[in-house]
Specification:
Elements (H helix, E strand, L loop, with lengths): L8 H19 L7 H23 L7 H23 L7 H18 L2 H19 L10 H24 L3 H21 L2 H6 L5 H25 L4 H27 L3 H26 L5 H35 L5 H18 L6 H22 L2 H17 L6 H22 L5 H21 L3 H17 L7 H20 L6 H20 L5 H21 L16 H28 L1 E10 L9 E6 H8 L6 E16 L2 E13 L10 E9 L2 E3 L4 E3 L5 H4 L4 E6 L5 E7 L2
Antiparallel strand pairs: 1-2, 1-8, 2-7, 3-4, 3-5, 5-6, 8-9
Helix pairs in contact: 1-3, 1-21, 2-3, 2-22, 3-4, 3-22, 4-5, 4-22, 6-7, 7-10, 9-10, 10-11, 10-12, 11-12, 12-14, 13-14, 14-15, 14-16, 15-16, 16-17, 16-18, 17-18, 18-19, 18-20
Length: 731
């Protein structure tokens, strides 16, 4: 199936690089383009994307490309909204930005039933929520009652989404919402742990205690129903089991750490025995009840259960046995030999266990033993020690080659090789360029293992490791230009080989390949070595090459008959018109404020991070903020900041701009005042923080030094108190 569709890969890459290039280009904030040109380019991108979608929808051969371009149009609209925020210095990564982007994306999802729109909508929905709760650049501390209300609402909201998505057969999306439900629940309950509730009683203790009881009761009921009915998807079980494991481990260890201190080993050991007993009981019962009709369900349930219980068991074993080692040996020299002895004993005991129902015990002991050998090698602080355990891992990989456990030792072998090479270079004062060369060799060796054993678990693992090595080499910032080019080419060529000529039908294989490309593009966005502008030009060139490759080769090597859901162009056209109108009106509104608003100067102090999508910006802290923090009776909600004209001014472009000082803060119910002597700014006060909407100033990349000494902001203020940041100046 993948082979039949490999001709699509150039087109997908062409679109990906085109959109990435647009994002990079606008994020670079190139000063050679003025605001009208930027707006025109963004609107053109939206129109072209919709037009391409319309053209392909009429095609009898490549109709499926219509959905791809419609998705590109949705992303282009988001980029345009981001651009407007950048040009007019709105709040970086504001929840409003993602909310505006979400609305048409969700409408397109409902109209077309195209799954990527659902994924985009869920992503934007989550960004909207979390940016609203925890805005970029603001530190918000919620009270216990507020936190309880917020997270309880999030749990209910995402549970509702979970059931709705399952009802419309969007299971993968439903699982994501279930993960968020469990995250919210465990985060809230672990932050307000059972130990805290019983040792420090407060007004919210009873509600939180009730939540603990409800959570435990829910997990017990779910598990009993899961065992009995066998209707729930194994992923649901995996999510509940994993997060409940974190919940139990945290609360049990937290309680006994404060009650028994260094004797934590004992409760950890008891918890480990309980975990092993539960796994043995479940697997024995599971094997008896498995039938031929539910073999696929049983296989996935078994794999998830064993994997998660082994992971949790390893955490408990490491914590409890390490506690025991420190309890017995303290920090004396013999502790390293204790790690060696325990490592060998755990591995040996794990290998001696043969029963299928004891698989969790077997895996937990082996992983724990493998991990314990590394502290021994590092504490020895000798190169031979790390090479010794690396050779041991290589031998174990060879001995267990036919078994799945070989993967454990193969991962340990790769970790050992990296550690051994690094220590050797450090010990003998070799060039650190040799480390990158060694990583390249390890990547090539893993690639060779994959091509030789691609149908085995070890082969797939070696592919993931080779991707990791090659990807890491593109992150290095201390390489010569020639080496950097070589490593980038190695990664890109290797990635494209697997995209165009896939060697496996495994979903993990496909997903990891695309994930590596995504991580690469995201990293290059945040990497400061190469300008975003130059990166965008390179991406545009790559995009053109891949589009050309599709038209020359790709369309002859792809499936042309696809089941595409029909959708009407009329509502989509309405969405397009509304998008264009929104961007045009917003830009016009901001321009009016820039032209007609009263110009004032405000004192500030800058910082300079990079936005999620909008490029580099200066985060501003005004004198207004300082005065607000000093107030004893801080207001909440929408407020007006009364600024009074001072005798001082800032000289800008041949004219004097008066400096305004904060005088008082009042409720927004009072009318705004804008005149020569007093100015009113609209703001939002929440949890001791003040948001004026002018805290972020976007700058062209690599121009941070130019703005470091600016100590005043020039702000345009409208009659209703709306403000827009124009520029920064030095007095």
């Amino acid at each position: 199936m993948m082979t039949n569709k490999r001709g699509d890969i150039p087109y997908i890459l062409g679109l990906v690089f085109l959109l990435a290039g647009v994002i990079y280009f606008f994020a670079s904030n190139w000063p050679m383009l003025d605001r009208p040109v930027k707006i025109g380019l963004s609107l053109t991108l939206i129109i072209v994307s919709y037009a391409a979608s319309a053209l392909y929808k009429r095609s009898m051969t490549f109709q499926y490309l219509s959905n791809w371009w419609l998705l590109a149009a949705a992303i282009a609209f988001g980029v345009s909204v981001v651009l407007v925020g950048q040009m007019y210095n709105s709040h970086a990564d504001s929840y409003v930005l993602f909310l505006i982007w979400l609305i048409p994306a969700l409408l397109l999802a409902l109209l077309t039933k195209y799954e990527p729109f659902y994924w985009l909508s869920l992503l934007l929905f989550e960004l909207t929520i979390w940016q609203k709760l925890y805005p970029t650049g603001l530190w918000i501390e919620y009270s216990n009652w507020e936190e309880l209300g917020i997270y309880a609402s999030l749990i209910i909201l995402h549970l509702t989404l979970f059931f709705l998505l399952k009802k419309i057969s969007r299971e993968k999306l439903a699982f994501v919402t279930l993960i968020i439900v469990q995250y919210c629940a465990v985060f809230l309950l672990n932050k307000h742990s059972l130990y805290d509730l019983f040792t420090a009683f407060h007004s919210t203790s009873l509600p939180f205690l009730l939540l603990h009881v409800l959570y435990i009761g829910f997990i017990v009921l779910f598990w009993r129903r899961f065992e009995r009915e066998r209707k729930h998807h194994p992923v649901e079980m995996a999510v509940h089991l994993l997060f409940f494991g974190f919940y139990v481990i945290y609360n049990v260890f937290f309680i006994f750490l404060f009650m028994f201190g260094e004797a934590l080993f004992y409760i950890g050991f008891l918890l480990l025995i309980a975990l092993f007993a539960f796994s043995i009981y479940f697997l024995q019962k599971f094997k008896k009840n498995t039938t031929k009709t539910d073999q696929k369900w049983s296989r996935y349930t078994y794999q998830f259960f064993v994997g998660i219980l082994s992971f949790l068991g390893t955490i408990v074993a490491l914590a409890s046995l390490s506690s025991f080692i420190f309890l017995v040996f303290g920090f004396i020299d013999g502790i390293k030999y204790a790690y060696l002895l325990l490592g060998i004993l755990c591995i040996g005991a794990g290998l001696l266990i043969k029963k299928t129902s004891f698989i969790v015990v077997r895996l937990t002991l082996q992983v724990t033993g493998i991990i314990f050998l590394f502290p021994f090698a590092f504490m020895m602080n000798e190169t031979w020690a790390i090479w010794l355990i690396t050779v041991a891992f290589a031998v174990m990989t060879a001995i267990l080659f036919q078994k799945k456990e070989a993967s454990l030792y193969y991962v340990a072998l790769n970790v050992g090789l990296v550690a051994a090479v690094t220590m050797t270079i450090s010990t003998y004062n070799l060039s650190w360029q040799s480390l990158s060369a060694s990583l390249l060799v390890l990547g090539l060796l893993n690639a060779a293992v994959f091509f030789t054993l691609k149908q085995t678990h070890l082969g797939l693992l070696s592919y993931l490791l080779s991707l990791l090595y090659f990807l890491y080499l593109t992150f290095s910032d201390d390489l010569s230009v020639m080496l950097a080019i070589i490593y980038h080419l190695v990664f890109i060529v290797y990635l494209f080989i697997h995209l165009f000529q896939p060697r496996s039908e495994s979903r993990i294989y496909r997903w990891s390949t695309w994930a590596a490309l995504s991580v690469f593009l995201v990293w290059k966005y945040y990497e400061y070595i190469w300008d975003l502008l130059h990166k965008s030009l390179a991406l545009f060139i790559l995009s053109a090459i891949f589009f050309l490759l599709f038209f020359v080769w790709g369309r002859k090597h792809t499936e042309k008959a696809r089941n595409i859901l029909e959708w009407s162009w009329k509502p989509v056209l309405v969405i397009l018109v509304l998008q264009l109108a929104f961007i045009g009106f917003t830009a016009w509104q901001k321009e009016q404020l820039l032209q007609n608003g009263q110009l004032v100067a405000l004192k500030l102090e800058p910082l300079d991070p990079r936005s999620l999508l909008q490029g580099d910006y200066v985060q501003l802290n005004y004198e207004v903020h300082t005065k607000f923090f000093e107030k004893q009776d801080s207001l909440e909600g929408n407020i007006h900041v009364i600024l009074e004209k001072s005798a001082d001014s800032v000289h800008v472009n041949g004219k004097e701009v008066p400096i305004y000082k904060p005088k008082t803060f009042v409720s927004a119910n009072e009318p705004a005042t804008v005149n020569e002597q007093k100015i009113t700014l609209q703001g939002k006060a929440k949890y001791g923080t003040l948001d004026l909407g002018i805290e972020h100033f976007f700058i062209p990349e690599n121009t941070g030094q130019k703005w470091e000494d600016k100590n005043y902001a020039l702000v345009r203020v409208a009659e209703n108190g709306d403000a827009i940041l124009e520029t920064l100046v030095k007095k």
